[in-house]
Amino acid sequence: MRLFLALDIPDDDRDALAGLQSGMSGGRQVEPDLFHITIAYLGDGVRDETASDLHDLLGAAPFSRGEIALKGIGHFGHSAPTAIWVGVAPVAPLDALHQRTARLAREAGLDLPRRRYVPHVTLARYSEGDLEAANDLAHLLLRHGSFSRPAFRPIALNLMRSHLGRRGPDYEVLAQYPLR
User: Fold this and answer.
1) What's the CATH code of the domain at 131?
2) 98 given a catalytic annotation
3) Does the record bear Nuclease in its keywords (predicted)?
4) pLDDT of residue 115
5) How confident is the model at residue 180, as a pLDDT?
6) Would the pTM count as exceeding 0.90?
7) In which domain, by residue range, is 36 found?
8) What is the rounded distance in angstroms from the CA atom of residue 50 to the CA atom of residue 112?
């Protein structure tokens, strides 16, 4: 199974992000109903037993519920963007949640790579060399570089399964863990 842990975002934030996409001309734009903040990507080949062990660990762990806000435009990729996203502030509470869930995932038997965590909501993904990527990024930075939304308090951490299809991914919520 292809699994990840994520937070939902409020509907009004989804609408605001969809508004940002309306000025983009390239890439594979993420459908607004699929917007989320990934906390930890767990991998493509997660076995049922491992997912069950992780579920037990996550269900027994209390998680803090802090305020976060969508803020700023960013991208992945060095010479040309491969993804354009909206950031999240403050980063510290989400980084702590990422570290804790990654530790629990490793306890369940998953081998997660150790890399810098950048909380974000992806707006669009681009193929290497897509000329529209730089244009879309420049447009967003010029018109919406100081993008920000009011803070919100997520209510649950979601264990998500990703189903890849011809039109892109589809997500299924397997379990929710309340944030307190």
Assistant:
1) 3.90.1140.10
2) no
3) no
4) 87
5) 87
6) yes
7) 2-178
8) 13
